Amino acid sequence: MFHTGIGKEFRLLKYLDDGVKLHFEAAIQNLFNHPNFANPSATLGAATNGVISATANRLEEVGSRRMEMRLRITF
Q1: How far apart are CA 67 and CA 1, in angstroms?
Q2: Residue-number span of the structural domain to which 12 is assigned
Q3: Quick count: other Cβ atoms within 10 Å of Cβ 28?
Q4: What share of the chain is helix, strand, coil (3-state, %, to 5)?
Q5: CA-CA distance, 69 to 24, in Å (whole number)?
Q6: What is the separation of C-alpha 9 from the centre of its chain, rounded to a whole number of angstroms?
Q7: What is the pLDDT of residue 31?
Q8: How far apart are CA 47 and CA 62, in angstroms?
Q9: Fewer CB within 10 Å of terminal CB in the chain, N or C?
Q10: Predicted confidence pLDDT, tens digits, the chain (75 residues)
Q11: Which pLDDT value is given to residue 67?
């Protein structure tokens, strides 16, 4: 899987000492949307031995492409 993200910070009010900042972030998980296959069946003597019949569903992996965008204002 290929994950990527970008971010940009903008200063909105420059005349204040600390200023007001707007922070934008975008993150994409599984950018190319390739399937991640599960392990093949390992039951000896079964007709499905060695057949991959599902995709992997782990908590750290995303089955399809997922995009998130965040906007944060700091003052």
Answers
A1: 14
A2: 4-74
A3: 17
A4: 0, 40, 60
A5: 7
A6: 21
A7: 85
A8: 30
A9: C
A10: 788 999 999 988 777 667 888 999 999 988 887 777 788 887 788 888 888 877 776 545 556 788 999 999 988
A11: 93
3-state class (DSSP) for residue 12: strand
Say how far apart CA 62 and CA 64 lie, in whole Å: 6
- What pTM value is reported for the model? 0.58
Q: Residue 57: its pLDDT value, please?
A: 65
Q: Name every residue whose Cβ is closer than 8 Å to that of residue 71 and which is 6 or more positions away in sequence.
A: 22, 23, 24
Which amino acid would we find at residue 27? A
User: Residue 70 in contact with residue 9, Cβ under 8 Å?
Assistant: no
* Number of domains making up the chain: 1
